[in-house]
Amino acid sequence: NAGVTQTPKFQVLKTGQSMTLQCAQDMNHEYMSWYRQDPGMGLRLIHYSVGAGITDQGEVPNGYNVSRSTTEDFPLRLLSAAPSQTSVYFCASSWGGDYGYTFGSGTRLTVV
Amino acid sequence: AQSVTQPDIHITVSEGASLELRCNYSYGATPYLFWYVQSPGQGLQLLLKYFSGDTLVQGIKGFEAEFKRSQSSFNLRKPSVHWSDAAEYFCAVAGANDYKLSFGAGTTVTVRA
To answer: How far apart are CA B33 and CA B100, in angstroms?
Structure first.
């Protein structure tokens, strides 16, 4: 099993550009989430999904969109990148709340 | 709303010494509690979790944690640290029917020889 795979690992964007961060899992997990990690703030939930076709906002959703057309994939879209979105982004998946989440290795995004 | 506080931003410990990381949570019902570890440049790895039952839980890499409902705490311990334990540690909370993890700000552990 590959687990949770995130691509790309690193990305530099110019302000106003758009891009999609990819996340795929091969564990047939129903729950998937996107977090951003900033120094001194831990991880904050951006968006999450409880199954294909079902998504909802987390703590910091502004500037990000998600969709979940399949169980395996949960891409995160930045519509118009801003310097405040410079961060490390983690995708995670789980069977359910009591199993804990499996995390990907992260995408380090810099917006200039 | 649920929240997690990790009072210690940075802890330095000597190799072979014991380690305790503090975690306090706020949650209205019975919480699900987790400790994750993150090595530099890596993702997060689950160390241990608590849902119910025995309040002392054992995890991987020789770590254990104790749930104390009266103190709203879930402190992580290791009797004897190794240089490889240098990392950032995160405490997290979720609810029984809630799949949204809330994380603390993390504690960075430095191990000195």
So the answer is: 12
A43, closest residue in chain B (CA to CA): B103
Q: Are B22 and B7 in contact (CB under 8 A)?
A: yes
How much is the average pLDDT of B18-43?
Answer: 91
Contacts with A98 from chain B: Cβ below 8 Å: 32, 49, 51, 96
**Residue A96 to residue B43, Cβ atoms within 8 A:** no
Over the stretch A33-68, which tens digit does the pLDDT of each residue have? 999 999 888 899 999 999 999 999 999 999 999 999
Burial of A70 (0-12, 13-18, 19+ CB in 10 A): exposed
